[in-house]
């Protein structure tokens, strides 16, 4: 399995992502738009490949605009969304995960401004993340508010490990 992980990282030219895992930007639209949220100019659409391996997490973070997660390969992905009140869990499963067709859920959507976190449920998970208007690190933030951290901790489960 490690050979496959190493091959993905090397072939795609992935590098460590600040939130955890590995990534490489695969697409950035040449069309430029004004964000309806902050009026800053952004690419119309961006897309990355994102890889999480066993034990890695995508820390709680948010982006300004809607993000679509698509699973491509590997174990199911546990995708968490926090709207300020409760955590919703989504499980993205690809056909390579050895499941029946009725269990397949190829994508999940995180609305802009919602906190999100993720982890692979196995050895690795390769996903794609598309953001529109396009992703910019200026629009990216981690949970830093102590009240929000306390809310997540109070919800129990293992949600606090994603801090």
Automatic annotation (TrEMBL):
SUPFAM superfamilies (alphabetical): RmlC-like cupins
Residue stretches making up the DUF985 domain: 7-141
InterPro entries per UniProt: Cupin_DUF985, RmlC-like_jellyroll, RmlC_Cupin_sf, YML079W-like
Alphabetical list of Gene3D superfamilies matching this protein: Jelly Rolls
Tree of life domain: Bacteria
PANTHER family: DUF985 DOMAIN-CONTAINING PROTEIN (PTHR33387:SF3), RMLC-LIKE JELLY ROLL FOLD PROTEIN (PTHR33387)
Protein name: DUF985 domain-containing protein
Organism encoding this protein: Agaribacter marinus
């Amino acid at each position: 399995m490690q050979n496959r992980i190493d091959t993905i990282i090397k072939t795609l030219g992935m590098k460590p992502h600040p939130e955890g895992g590995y990534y490489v930007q695969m697409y950035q639209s040449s069309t430029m738009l004004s964000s309806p949220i902050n009026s800053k100019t952004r690419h119309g659409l961006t897309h990355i490949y994102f890889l999480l391996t066993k034990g890695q997490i995508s820390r709680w973070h948010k982006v300004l605009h809607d993000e679509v997660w698509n699973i491509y390969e590997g174990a199911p992905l546990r995708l968490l969304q926090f709207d300020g009140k409760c955590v919703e869990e989504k499980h993205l499963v690809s056909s390579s995960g050895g499941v029946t067709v009725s269990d397949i859920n190829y994508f999940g959507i995180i609305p802009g401004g919602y906190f999100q976190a993720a982890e692979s449920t196995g050895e690795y998970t390769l996903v794609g993340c598309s953001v529109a208007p396009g992703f910019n690190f200026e629009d990216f933030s981690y949970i830093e508010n102590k009240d929000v951290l306390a809310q997540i901790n109070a919800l129990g489960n293992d949600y606090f490990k994603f801090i």
